[in-house]
């Protein structure tokens, strides 16, 4: 029988041999998930033997990660803005960079009616509803499977927002004070160059921004003017090289107070504007 520590080192070694980037960290997270164990309890129990059943269970998780299944798809969970979100293969895994988008909206959101276009897991809208008291929160997505995840997350986080299946604005018949979107924005030719965790296991429909990566920005900006109240604001997450292009699209559509916000790596991350 292996001890808990021996099993963890074995997991690390297997992941390193498979060239998993964060092998040591991922092996620990799977240990934590499998054994419901904190760092403190691991240090106290690391020399205890592990049953064959639990060893098999842990190694099964390690083998899944070796095949480049994202850690979050194995555990079914990702933290975002301090809240817990369920994720699966039908939605993008929430990224820390997207928290900057939420933080930019918070000062404007209290008491407002907000539309989250391309809502995916619902993490943006639900986090906003937890951070401030929204008047109304609506999330829209073309994917029925993504909306199942978003609804589950609303229940999990006790958030009173609602979701609608819509191909962009086709099923949206209301106006809003704020529209936010993290749309697909990767150029089609770049999607196949992404790391296998993303390329093989996250939904291409949520990644592919067509030939130039700007397709959905153009569509959303063009239609947003019919769904924003006068003086309303729009917020986008963008790719690192899209700040200038998206700003220009907003200006051409009649928006003002256009601002580009950088992320922690000093790369363009959010564009916002006022109608």
Kindly report how far apart the N and C termini lie.
66 Å
Query: Strand share of the residues?
Result: 15-25%
User: In the CATH hierarchy, what is the architecture of the largest domain at level 2?
Assistant: 3-Layer(aba) Sandwich
Strand order of the largest sheet: 5-4-3-6-7-9-8
Structural description of this entry:
The chain folds into 2 domains: 4-67; 78-274, Vaccinia Virus protein VP39 (Rossmann fold, 3-Layer(aba) Sandwich), CATH 3.40.50.150. Helix 2 (23-35) crosses helix 4 and helix 6 (99-109) crosses helix 7. The chain has helices at 4-17, 23-35, 39-45, 52-66, 71-75, 99-109, 123-131, 144-156, 188-191, 196-201, 215-224, 243-252; strands spanning 77-80, 83-86, 113-117, 136-141, 162-165, 176-181, 228-237, 256-262, 268-274. 43% of the residues lie in helices and 19% in strands. Helix 8 links the parallel strand 4 (136-141) and strand 5 (162-165). The chain is elongated and about 70 Å long. The model has no long low-confidence stretch (mean pLDDT 92). A 7-stranded mixed beta sheet has the order 5-4-3-6-7-9-8, sandwiched between helices. It contains 12 helices and 9 strands. By secondary structure, it is α/β, with parallel strands linked by helices. The relative contact order is 0.11. The longest helix has 15 residues, at 52-66. Belongs to the protein N5-glutamine methyltransferase family. PrmC subfamily.
């Amino acid at each position: 029988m292996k001890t808990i520590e021996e099993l963890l080192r074995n997991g690390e070694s297997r992941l390193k041999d498979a060239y998993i980037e964060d092998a040591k960290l991922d092996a620990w997270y799977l240990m934590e998930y499998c054994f419901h164990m904190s760092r403190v309890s691991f240090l106290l129990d690391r020399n205890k033997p592990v049953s064959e059943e639990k060893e098999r269970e842990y190694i099964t998780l390690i083998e899944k990660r070796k095949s480049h299944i994202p850690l979050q798809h194995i555990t079914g969970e990702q933290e975002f803005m301090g809240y817990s979100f369920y994720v699966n293969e039908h939605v993008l895994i929430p990224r820390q960079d997207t928290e900057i988008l939420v933080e930019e909206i918070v000062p404007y959101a209290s008491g407002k009616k907000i539309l989250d276009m391309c809502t995916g897991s619902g993490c943006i809208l639900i986090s906003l509803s937890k951070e401030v008291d929204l008047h109304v929160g609506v999330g829209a997505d073309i994917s029925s499977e993504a909306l199942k995840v978003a609804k589950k997350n609303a229940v999990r986080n006790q958030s009173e927002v609602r979701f609608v299946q819509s191909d962009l604005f086709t099923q949206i018949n209301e106006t809003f004070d704020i529209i936010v979107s993290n749309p697909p924005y990767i150029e089609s030719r770049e999607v196949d160059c992404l790391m296998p965790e993303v390329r093989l296991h996250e939904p291409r429909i949520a990644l592919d921004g067509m030939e130039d990566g700007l397709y959905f920005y153009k569509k959303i900006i063009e239609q947003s003017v019919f769904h924003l109240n006068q003086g309303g604001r729009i917020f986008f997450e963008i790719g690192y090289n899209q700040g200038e292009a998206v700003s220009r699209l907003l200006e051409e559509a009649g928006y003002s107070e256009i601002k580009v916000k950088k992320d922690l790596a000093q790369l363009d991350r959010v564009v916002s504007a006022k109608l």
